[in-house]
Design a protein that fits this description.
single chain, alpha/beta, about 45% helix, globular, binds nicotinamide-adenine-dinucleotide
Length: about 450
């Protein structure tokens, strides 16, 4: 039996997919309302394919849900932690939920079990988890502590779970600072057991390393992706000044196999629940250790100015913005998710409202979440075309497929002015010129 603490994007995907592999799984969460939905087979967020896996495994009785963490641990051989680690005070990661799960484990694991943490935690945290468990145990009981960072992407979580690019396991061992009392160094048996739990085939690169290395790998991977994106965005600014076209430039660069094409899209800056937070936490870990991450600070700065560029573009094109009507297509930080955590759309809409614009938004999945943030300050459309009515401009912020091939003739008919500020470079500038749109992409002079 496996219990998975935290039934959010990562925990629910993990629980449902492990059940689909044939394990008996209990999902544990503090949010009773969320669990009631899950028990009825409903996923409370948007993730393609997850609902089917959830329903199937509930029906086949491999997957259940509870708020009772103590009983779940008692029944389980393996306990996984996938609770949130948001940015907390002083820009450090808030570890309170992870440490709460560690305490519950300590108090309820009466015999030897494995504790696998999947939440993203800063370097040194796994040692703190070990100490917390040892301190809270009523009497010493050996346990195996593993840090198994998660790399799934919202929108393709199932594929990433079943076919990961690589898997990383941080284990107690010679590279870790200390071994838990009475726990032997990780042996082949532990590694084989982890391979069996996650059904890792010889085709998937699996790295078994120290806790600290695994912790650094997770943050460094996201910081590197963020670096690529800020690099391309800065290059896009340069292209605008120099008369270049960022799309052709990144095409040309990406064919170099050392560079590649992925994470090379210019746009409105990166957002989401991971990249901005993980970048900040890595910078903060550096500060604590008196290491100045100068590259990462620049990455952050470049990202912060991207949303402002779009609003500036609107100002130079439309003149005074007060009272003008703007339609926004796309709110989620990327397509195929409803996640709005750190979505650039929030900052952009705040700025539009500050300029007293009338803002009409539409997103295929994230509208409800946006309502919770902006309430009646903006208006919400049922479909893409309804928000265009009488609009002075369209801002395209998320490249959902339905926005990529719209009915341009219909758009022109309903908009007051055929002006598109495209934050995702989804249209062809020549075609837009031929259709007589005023079209402003990113980095394409
Ligand atoms: P989330 O906010 O979607 O879900 C967290 C869940 O944990 C919530 O349902 C919450 O109610 C529950 N929870 C909080 N305290 C709890 C407790 N004490 N016991 C049981 N449940 C509790 O978070 P997420 O996006 O799934 O992220 C989880 C972790 O995985 C974070 O550390 C995040 O950085 C990391 N991560 C996320 C992604 C992603 O794409 N979302 C990708 C890789 C890694």
């Amino acid at each position: 039996m496996i219990s998975v603490f935290g039934c959010g994007y990562v925990g629910l995907t993990t629980a449902a997919c492990l059940a689909d592999m044939g394990h008996a799984v209990i999902g544990v969460d503090v949010d009773e309302k969320k669990l009631n939905l899950l028990r009825r087979g409903r996923v409370p967020f948007f993730e393609p394919g997850l609902q089917d896996v959830l329903k199937r495994n509930i029906a086949e009785k491999r997957l259940s849900f509870t708020t009772k963490g103590d009983a779940a641990i008692d029944k389980s051989d393996i306990v996984m932690c996938a609770v949130a680690t948001p940015q907390g005070k002083r820009r450090q990661a808030d570890l309170s939920a992870v440490l709460q799960v560690a305490k519950t484990f300590a108090l309820n694991a009466a015999k030897e079990k494995i504790f696998i943490n999947k939440s993203t935690v800063p370097v040194g945290t796994t040692e703190i988890i070990r100490q917390t468990i040892e301190k809270k145990q009523p009497k010493p009981v050996p346990f195996t502590l593993v840090y198994h960072p998660e790399f799934l992407r919202e929108g393709s979580a199932l594929q990433d779970f079943f076919k990961p690019d690589r898997v990383i396991f941080g284990l107690a061992g010679p590279d870790s600072i200390a071994l838990p009392n009475g726990v032997p160094a990780p042996d082949e048996k532990t590694k084989q057991r982890l391979r069996r739990i996650f059904k890792i085939t010889s085709k998937t690169p699996a790295l078994f390393t120290s806790y600290r290395n695994a912790e650094i790998i997770k943050y460094a991977s996201n910081a590197f992706l963020a670096t690529r994106l800020s690099f391309v965005n800065e290059l896009a600014e340069f292209c605008e000044a120099a008369g270049g076209d960022i799309e052709d430039v990144v095409q040309g660069m990406g064919h170099d196999q050392r560079i590649g094409h992925r994470y090379m899209r210019a746009g409105i800056g990166f957002g989401g629940s991971c990249l901005p937070k993980d970048l900040q936490v890595l910078i903060s870990s550096g500060n604590t250790l008196k290491h100045d991450f100068s590259i990462l600070k620049a990455v952050q700065q470049v990202n912060k100015r991207q949303p402002q560029r779009l609003v500036r573009r609107m100002k130079t094109t439309l003149g005074p913005l007060r009272g003008k009507r703007v339609a926004v297509w796309g709110l989620a930080f990327k397509p195929d998710t409803d996640d709005l955590r750190d979505a650039p759309s929030i900052q952009i809409v705040e700025q539009l409202l500050r300029h007293k614009m009338r803002v009409h938004v539409y997103d295929p999945a994230a509208t409800d979440g946006f309502k919770k943030i902006f309430g009646a300050k903006v208006s919400y459309g049922e479909d893409a075309y309804s928000v265009l009515r009488d609009a002075d401009a369209l801002l395209l912020l998320t490249e959902w497929p339905e926005f990529c091939k719209p009915d341009f003739a219909k758009m022109k008919r309903v908009m007051r002015r055929p002006l598109i500020v495209d934050g995702r470079n989804v249209y062809n500038p020549q075609k837009m010129a031929a259709l007589q749109f005023q079209y402003y992409p990113v980095g394409r002079a």
